[in-house]
Specification:
- The chain has a 7-stranded mixed β-sheet, with helices on both faces.
- Strand 2 and strand 3 form a beta hairpin.
- The protein contains 7 helices and 7 strands, in the order βαββαβααβαβααβ.
- The chain has one domain: P-loop containing nucleotide triphosphate hydrolases (Rossmann fold, 3-Layer(aba) Sandwich), CATH 3.40.50.
- Helix content is 30%, strand content 22%.
- The protein is globular.
- Bound molecules: guanosine-5'-diphosphate (GDP) and magnesium ion.
- The site of guanosine-5'-diphosphate has 14 residues, from helix 1.
Length: 224
């Protein structure tokens, strides 16, 4: 069994459902605290995927996204980003490009990206088509999922896919290293234990057979 530690940041306009998605994924019963210094909170949890013990740090904003940027600390050592829009809001989808630009400006090295169209339960108010979003996701080399934090549709799948992307990226990095290519060594060592102590830590163990390895067709992994 190998282990992998990684930081995932969740980005997107206010109100798209970022906090709801994070809480849906890590479990509603756990406390959620916010660090006033960085305006963000994070959960850590563990799961087992493909013979990897994966420890993830999942970062959520505390409203800073209304300024359309986050403190550099939020992005520091991030390995993956969930880019969340609301399928009923064209504006929230258009603003994703700005978050991608922010990420590129703030994160060195490679990132697993996942575009997430949330509120899929509101199909009758849909303003962003599945095809349009899928096309954009491909253009930025991101996975794409539509989710509903409300009905818990697609949420597990999106996070599982990001974890698999991180594992794949980690393998690529190991291969790169064997070729003596200079790479950012943060995957696998990214967790900031000292900072984690200042926050609520949530440990959620999921057995591999609980994570439901369902993979959709046409979904892609990607790095920037
Ligand atoms: P954030 O600002 O991106 O963190 O968004 P929140 O998680 O605070 O959610 C904003 C609002 O959208 C709240 O009223 C949520 O209840 C609602 N919401 C979040 N996810 C969903 C969803 O999947 N479906 C529906 N119908 N409402 C949602
Ligand atoms: Mg929020």
């Amino acid at each position: 069994m190998r282990s992998l530690e990684a930081k995932i940041v969740v980005l997107g306009s206010q109100g798209v459902g970022k906090t709801s998605l994070v809480l849906r994924y890590v479990g509603k019963l756990f406390p959620h605290t916010v660090s006033p210094t960085i305006g963000a909170s994070f959960f850590t949890f563990k799961m087992t995927v493909e013979n990897y013990r994966v420890k993830l740090q999942l970062w959520d904003t505390a409203g800073q996204e209304r300024f359309r940027s986050m403190a550099p600390m939020y992005y520091r050592k991030a390995n993956a980003a969930m880019l969340v829009y609301d399928i009923t809001s064209s504006l929230s989808f258009e603003l994703i490009q700005g978050w991608v630009t922010e990420l590129k400006r703030n994160v060195e090295g490679r990132l697993v990206l996942c575009l997430v169209g949330n509120k899929s339960d509101l199909g009758d108010q849909r303003a962003v088509s599945h095809e349009q979003a899928q096309e954009y996701a491909e253009s930025i080399d991101a996975f794409f999922f539509e989710t509903s934090a409300l009905t818990n549709s697609g949420v597990q799948e999106a996070f599982l896919q990001v974890s698999l992307g991180l594992i794949r990226m980690n393998k690529e990095i190991i291969m790169d290293m064997s070729d003596e290519v200079s790479v950012r060594p943060s995957v696998g060592t990214a967790l900031m234990e000292d900072e984690a102590d200042d926050h609520v830590r949530l440990e959620q163990y999921r057995r591999a057979n609980d994570t439901g390895h369902k993979m959709g067709s046409g979904r892609r992994c990607c790095t920037v």
